[in-house]
Amino acid sequence: LSFLPTVSPKFIRDPESTKEYFTEFLKKLPHGTITSDNVQQYGPDAYLHTGMYTFLTGPADNRAPVEARFSYMWRKIDGAWKIVHHHSSALPKAPGAAVEEAESEDMYPIAQANFKSWNDALQTQDYEKVADLYAKKDLSFLPTVSPKFIRDGDSAKEYFMEFLKKLPDGTVTSDNVQRYGPDAYLHTGLYTFMTGPADNRAPLEARFSY
Fold first, then answer.
1. Are 52 and 34 a contacting pair, CB within 8 Å?
2. N or C terminus of the chain: which is more exposed, having fewer CB within 10 Å?
3. What pLDDT, on the 0 to 100 scale, is given for residue 78?
């Protein structure tokens, strides 16, 4: 085994050490989504899977995304696919990113909390409650599943009357927050919505800016 995990400096070479690592890592409640990947075959019983993924970690009321690169070498051993190599590393920061993050980090928890409030409102199936989160005038709203440019609170209500019938539930997979003064911020990124009845849920990937 060759295992270089994301959140540990160790080079893990055996199953017992792997168990020890995941004993701690699973406490972060990780949930991963692949955002870009590639597969290279090495004979009939091995392949290399590489790419980028985003993990959401932390408790339900304070999930945080971690973007990382990965490589898995899978090999068929005694008829079962096993990981023989796994390398995962966080994405390097772009020049100047650390400064920008420091300036906006105090707004990030607020952005997370506000998104959760919005998504929780969707779960109530109350279009009035969802629309109440939007400004009544001077609104700029370009919804995912409508060609309309919504500019007022009443039009937002009309949109959510229909959209909530899809039973949407959103998860942010990658995001960024930029602060604009003490009482405004721009929250942008990617999210995935699960829509449809419980026995036939379908994912809808989209971009967002709030």
1. yes
2. N
3. 95
Query: Residue 93: is its pLDDT beyond 80?
Result: no
Check: CB of residue 121 under 8 Å from CB of residue 130.
yes
Check: CB of residue 46 under 8 Å from CB of residue 153.
no
Instruction: Report CA 12 to chain centroid distance, whole Å.
Output: 27
Fold match, 2-90 / 97-209: yes
Could you state, in order of their start, the residue ranges of all structural domains in the chain? Answer: 2-90, 97-209
* Tens-place pLDDT, residues 96-151: 555 555 555 678 899 999 999 999 999 999 999 999 999 998 899 999 888 899 99
**Pick among 3.40.50.300, 3.40.309.10, 2.60.40.10, 3.10.450.50: CATH of 97-209:** 3.10.450.50
How far, in Å, CA of 179 to CA of 104, rounded? 5
Please name the helix (run of DSSP H) or strand (run of DSSP E) that holds residue 155, with its range, or none. helix 153-163
Please list, residue by residue across 160-197, b when 16 or more beta carbons sit within 10 angstroms of its beta carbon and e when fewer do: beebbebbbebbbbbbbbebeeeeebebebbbebebee
Pairing of strands 80-90, 2-4: parallel
| Amino acid letter, residue 40 | Q
Asked if 82 and 75 touch (Cβ cutoff 8 Å), the reply is yes
Rg (CA), the chain: 21
